[in-house]
Amino acid sequence: MATATDLPSPPPESPHRPQPRNPADLFWSFTWLALQGFGGVLAVVQRELVEKKRWMTNEEFVEDWAVAQIMPGPNVVNLSIMIGDRYFGLRGAFAALAGMLTFPLVLVLALAVVYAEFSSHPAVAGALRGMGAVAAGLIAGVGIKLFVSIRNHPLGRPLCVAFAALTIVAMAWLRLPLLWILPVIGGAACLLTWRKLAP
Question: Tens digit of pLDDT for each residue in 167-177?
Fold first, then answer.
């Protein structure tokens, strides 16, 4: 008869991915995320959720961000609702949404009062222009980081680059509205990917 020592040992458990502990963790995490988002929150969202908290991979972030963009409303608010719902259902969605909006709303109202008082001052106008340049750099940096995540995309990197270039031309040069860019270029990318993945 086989003894316990003769039986094969069970395989070690795979490490669990970090995730929010409770809705309160979601609330404070998204509050901190939102309060860092001066000049553009995309860079902060990617760094906090992917690199620091590791609640999602770069590939998952790209996919969820794409969904958040095609939904009506602010992208990062849509993303927070999606992540909150994924972990704790409706409670999580409301907690993440409250975290994104509560303290930033109070801060923005206070800054609006201050800005109304000092907006005509040349130093204030110059500072805001400088912040715009930093925001553009942050978004470009995130784009470069996320570009790495398409290396395993079903369409292949060359076709992904072609779609990205088409989108940039449509937005920056032709100045087409997102209402046309998303269904046309985004729809074509979705259709091609679906056909690649179809059995």
Answer: 889 888 888 88
